[in-house]
C-alpha cells in the first residue's frame, strides 16, 4: 500500500480448498480498487486461504492505514459473520488501538446487492 493511503478496505470472504474459488473475489477486489484508487483494497479469508483477516489488517497497518473497514462478502449474517467476525474484530481493535476498525453488514444484506442478484436471476430465465 502506498504510504499516502490512510484508509484500507478489507473484503472478508469465507475461503475454500480450491484456489479457483477465489477468482470472483479477486475480480471484485480489482473492481473496488479501480473505483476507489485512494483506498488500499485487500482480500482476507476466514479459513482455508490466505491471507486471513489478522494478516491483512497487519499489512494495512504496516502500510500506514489509520482506518480499516471490513466488508463481509457473504450473502447473509450467518454464524461466521455474527460470531467469528466480531471476535476477530475485537482482537484487531485490541492489537491496533490507534487504528479505527469498522465493519458493515454482510454484502447480501444490502438492497442494491439483492437487486443486482435478482436481475442476474431474471436474465438467466430470459436467456435460458
Mean pLDDT: 94
Count of helices?
4
* Strand neighbour order, sheet with most strands: 2-1-3-4
How many angstroms separate the termini?
Answer: 43 Å
Order of helices and strands: EHEHEHEH
Helix vs. strand class: alpha/beta
Radius of gyration: 15 Å
Uncertain parts:
none
Number of distinct beta strands: 4
Percent strand equals 15-25%
Shape: globular
Would you kindly provide a written description of the structure presented here, covering whatever features stand out?
This protein has four helices and four strands; from the N terminus they run βαβαβαβα. It has helices at residues 23-35, 53-62, 79-95, 111-127; strands at 7-13, 40-45, 67-72, 100-103. A four-stranded parallel β-sheet has the order 2-1-3-4, sandwiched between helices. It is globular and about 50 Å long.
Structure, briefly:
The protein contains four helices and four strands, in the order βαβαβαβα. It is of the alpha/beta class and 128 residues long. It has a four-stranded parallel beta sheet, sandwiched between helices.
Which helices and strands, and how do they pair?
Blueprint: E1 7-13, H1 23-35, E2 40-45, H2 53-62, E3 67-72, H3 79-95, E4 100-103, H4 111-127
Parallel strand pairs: 1-2, 1-3, 3-4
What keyword list fits this structure?
128 residues; alpha/beta; 18% strand
Amino acid at each position: 500500500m502506498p504510504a499516502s493511503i490512510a484508509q484500507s478496505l478489507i473484503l472478508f470472504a469465507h475461503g475454500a480448498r480450491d484456489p479457483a474459488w477465489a477468482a470472483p473475489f479477486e475480480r471484485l477486489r480489482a473492481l473496488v480498487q479501480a473505483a476507489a484508487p485512494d483506498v488500499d483494497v485487500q482480500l482476507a479469508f476466514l479459513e482455508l486461504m490466505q491471507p486471513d483477516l489478522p494478516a491483512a489488517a497487519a499489512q494495512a497497518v504496516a502500510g500506514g492505514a489509520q482506518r480499516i473497514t471490513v466488508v463481509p462478502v457473504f450473502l447473509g449474517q450467518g454464524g461466521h459473520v455474527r460470531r467469528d467476525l466480531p471476535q476477530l474484530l475485537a482482537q484487531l481493535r485490541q492489537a491496533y488501538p490507534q487504528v479505527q476498525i469498522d465493519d458493515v453488514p454482510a454484502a447480501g444484506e444490502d438492497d442494491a446487492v439483492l437487486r443486482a442478484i435478482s436481475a442476474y436471476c431474471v436474465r438467466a430465465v430470459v436467456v435460458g
